[in-house]
Design a protein that fits this description.
The protein has eleven helices and no strands. The protein has one domain (about 1-280). The chain has helices at about 1-15, 25-35, 40-50, 50-65, 90-120, 125-145, 160-175, 180-190, 195-220, 230-255, 260-280. With about 280 residues, the chain is an all-alpha fold. Helix 5 (about 90-120) packs parallel to helix 7. Pfam families: BacA. It catalyses: di-trans,octa-cis-undecaprenyl diphosphate + H2O = di-trans,octa-cis-undecaprenyl phosphate + phosphate + H(+). It comes from Longibaculum muris. Keywords: Antibiotic resistance, Cell membrane, Cell shape, Cell wall biogenesis/degradation, Hydrolase, Membrane, Peptidoglycan synthesis, Transmembrane, Transmembrane helix.
C-alpha cells in the first residue's frame, strides 16, 4: 500500500509537470531524491519514462479531432472529392509530416546515445542549471514579444523548416534533463514567431510520437517481463498521470489565452536555486 501511495504521487507530479513548461523529468529526478520506490534500478529507469504514456493519452483524448487524419466530418482538405480517399484529411496528413520532421533530431540522438546521456546528465546539478537557464529564457522572450504580433497563428502556418527548428529545441531537452521538452519547444516556437496557443498545441502533438517512441525503447530494453507488483505500480502511475494531465492541459490552454509564460520562468528560477542550495547544504 505504501508503494501504491508513492506511485500515485509520482503520477500526480508527472501529470502536472509534463505539460507545464517546468520539466517533468527534472521533477521526477528530484522526487526520487526524497521518495524512493522500492523497486529495482532497472525498473525505475523504465518507469519514469513509460509513465508518460498515461500523460500522452490525455492529449490523444482531448485533441483527437484536431489531428486524426481520417473522416468526412470537418474535412476541409480532402484528398479527393469522391471515393474512399475523400475520407483522408490532407491538412492533418501534412501536419503529421511536420510533426515527424520535428521529431527527427531527438529521435536520432535518443536511439544512439540514450544510456550515455542518462549517465552523464541525469543529476541534480544539470536539472538545476537547466531549470534556471530556461526560466530566464522564458522571461526574456516574453518581455521581447510584449506588444508584438505573432507571425504564425495556426498549425497550418507552421512550415517544415519551422517544424525542424522547433525539433532542434526539443533536442536540447532530450539531452539535458530539467530543460523540459514542452518548455524547450515552446521557447523555440516563440522565438520563431509562433503564437503561445499554437506553440502549446504543436508541443502537445509533438509529444505523441516522441513519448511513444521513448517508452517503446525503454520497454524493449527492460525486457517486457514484469512482476505482479511492478505491473500494478506501472499501470496505477499511468492512470493517475492520465487523469491529472486532462485537468492540467485544459487549465494551460485556458491560462495562456490571457497570460504569458513568465510565471513559469520565475518558478523555474526559484526551484533551480532551491535545488542547488538544498544539495549544497546536505552535501
Amino acid at each position: 500500500m505504501i508503494e501504491i501511495l508513492k506511485v500515485i504521487l509520482f503520477g500526480i507530479v508527472e501529470g502536472i509537470t509534463e505539460w507545464l513548461p517546468i520539466s517533468s523529468t527534472g521533477h521526477m529526478i528530484l522526487l526520487d531524491e526524497f521518495i524512493k520506490l522500492d523497486v529495482s534500478s532497472e525498473f525505475y529507469s523504465m518507469f519514469q519514462v513509460v509513465i508518460q504514456l498515461g500523460a500522452i493519452l490525455a492529449v490523444v483524448v482531448l485533441f483527437w479531432n484536431d489531428f486524426f487524419p481520417f473522416g468526412r466530418k470537418n474535412n476541409k482538405q480532402p484528398m479527393t472529392t469522391t471515393g474512399i480517399l475523400s475520407y483522408v484529411k490532407m491538412d492533418k496528413i501534412i501536419l503529421w509530416f511536420k510533426i515527424l520532421v520535428a521529431c527527427v533530431p531527438a529521435a536520432i540522438v535518443g536511439i544512439l546515445f540514450d544510456e550515455q546521456l542518462e549517465a552523464l546528465f541525469y543529476n541534480y546539478q544539470t536539472v538545476a542549471i537547466a531549470l534556471i537557464v530556461f526560466g530566464i529564457a522564458f522571461i526574456i522572450i516574453e518581455n521581447r514579444n510584449k506588444g508584438s504580433y505573432s507571425k504564425i497563428n495556426t498549425l497550418t502556418d507552421i512550415t517544415f523548416n519551422t517544424a525542424f527548428l522547433i525539433g532542434i529545441f526539443q533536442l536540447i531537452a532530450a539531452i539535458f534533463p530539467g530543460t523540459s521538452r514542452s518548455g524547450a519547444t515552446i521557447v523555440g516556437a516563440l522565438l520563431l514567431g509562433v503564437s503561445r496557443t499554437v506553440a502549446a498545441e504543436f508541443t502537445f502533438f509533438l509529444a505523441i510520437p516522441v513519448m511513444f517512441g521513448a517508452s517503446l525503447l525503454k520497454l524493449v530494453k527492460f525486457g517486457l517481463v514484469f512482476t505482479a507488483q511492478e505491473a500494478i505500480l506501472l499501470i496505477i502511475g499511468m492512470i493517475v498521470a492520465f487523469v491529472v494531465s486532462i485537468l492540467v492541459i485544459q487549465f494551460l490552454m485556458g491560462y495562456i489565452k490571457k497570460h504569458d509564460f513568465k510565471v513559469f520562468g520565475w518558478y523555474r528560477i526559484v526551484l533551480g536555486i532551491l535545488v542547488l542550495a538544498y544539495f549544497m547544504f546536505i552535501g
